[in-house]
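Lab meeting, action items carried over

1. Structure of the two-component assembly. Owner: GW. Status: complete.
Input record:
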Amino acid sequence: MKRPLFDLKNVKKVYKMGDVEVPALRGINLTIEKGEFVAIIGHSGSGKSTLLSIMGCLDKPTEGKFFLDGEDVLKVSDNRLAIIRNQKIGFVFQQFNLLPRMTALENVEAPCIYAGIKRSERIKRAKELLERVGLEKERFYHYSNQLSGGQRQKVAIARALMNNPDIILADEPTGSLDTHSGDELMKIFVQLNEEKRAIILVTHEKYIADFARRIIHLRDGLIEGQNGA
Amino acid sequence: MVLELIKVAFRSLKANKLRFILSMLGIIIGVAAVIAIISIGQGASQKITEQISALGSELITIFPGFKGGTRGKISTQVTNIFSLELAEDLKRLSPDVKNVTAVIQGGAYLKYKENNMMANVVAITPEFSEILNVSTQEGRFITNQDLDEYRKVVVLGQEVVNELFSGEDPLGKRIVVQYGNRKFMFEVIGVLEKKGQMMFFNFDNQIYIPVTTVMKRLTGAHYVSQYYAKAREGKAEEAIKQIEFILTKRLKDENLFKVFAQQQVIKAVGQATSTMVIMLAGIAGISLLVGGIGIMNIMLVSVVERTREIGIRKALGAKRRDILIQFLVEALIISFVGGVIGLLAGWIISAVVAHLNNWPVVLSPSSIILAVGFSMGVGLVFGLYPARKAARLDPVEALRYE
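Predicted assembly:
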């Protein structure tokens, strides 16, 4: 039996702001197979970032079921969730979210530190990945605040790949980049997808979503429609 | 892994140097105070003990007791019991008493040419020299012949010589001793070697004359003010018992005298100083606690400031434990580095104080371990709450934090 990579059943998320309940997701049913390239598109407030957070095991739904690679992640411990994030998922954020006061290389190393991989191995892997995403060698030892937006996002991608995850979750990855850097980044995503990694990308730009093979439209916390697949 | 966390902790501390230093300050002051107080206290007590032991631990002091004082009467010191004969008897009858000297203490006004001064007069027997370990540097000490003939001879302490003779050789000179309101001429027969302050008296600013001279010529008194005795090596306790036994038999009242051994004094002084040190160190320890609260304060601010970083780390797969250790290590570094700096500062302070007072610098390993250990304990305790707070942050909220 082939099990889907993501299996979400009637997932709801309600934020409580004092007495007011704000529904962010109002019943999402979604399955994504291994190696898919999916774009989730929607206006701001459509719940797309919330959905991505839940899929990335950073947040838990208020209601519904969610199986990741067959594992009921709503029933596992915090520690297990940390391991899942560490081993199975690579995150790429709009704001890059590099660690402050650390060099490009050290940022890329970080996931391997939490995985307990020894230093020499870590550094070797981090250098390979940085080269692969096309960061110039002389930038390896620059601190994150000494890098441009495009360079930072390359570092972030290299970092996401460090533990060789099957899933890349990207939240508006091109949102803070110029068109050229954005294109470059999307090419990397396409490449990663060709390596059978599942890419789930949240965006509000149609042009970026078009790189994906399947587009999910989100509106007011519900899936409005899909194309592709 | 832990090594990496230490590296990260150092990084973030380096990024906020001033804050790092300020948060360490409380610990530095606390540890420095504890170390300095303990070290100074131990140094002082060692010095005092040395001084007391220099007099010989076999030294026994016998004072008159007090009588009266009941039914509204004022108690008065007994003055009419310690005769020279009794001193002889004590020496003769107690097997473990090596020597006894009878002493009368008083004050006199001294004059030589234009120089004059006030000095303590100690009227003694020749045994005083052996019992209190004093000897003359020039001339001779008081002899039995001096006593037998009530000679008006005097042995001077160093400070008296300096003040009275200003460079002149004092031996053979005659000085005026005004005792009460009568004046006497005394011949200087010796100068005591420099001995310095020992316990309650300073040998150097006193003069020594034969006890019989005071009794027969100066005052006409029949009794002395106290005895000093020396026990045989290691027999101080037996000697005290024998002295007490004899005096009780003779005087029929054990309240008429008091017998002190040097060892008791050493013990008492040691207890008094250690009590003092413990109390002061306790007070200093409170500042360590305040330092701990300072660490907690800084760490809480740091956690809030780095909320986003914590969120990123969680997204990358950091477990609660990883975040907890990271912040705990930071608090421990603050308290450890603060503890070490405080240790150095405390050591410098106590070394300076020891140098000024001419006593040994005592820095026992136990107090070092105690101070650094305690400061790290403080760091651990006060770092735990902020670290737990960091570890329990919700990843999504932390990532959204601006």
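2. GW to write a short summary for the group page. Key points so far: Residues 59-232 of chain B form one domain. The first strand of chain B starts at residue 59 and ends at 64.
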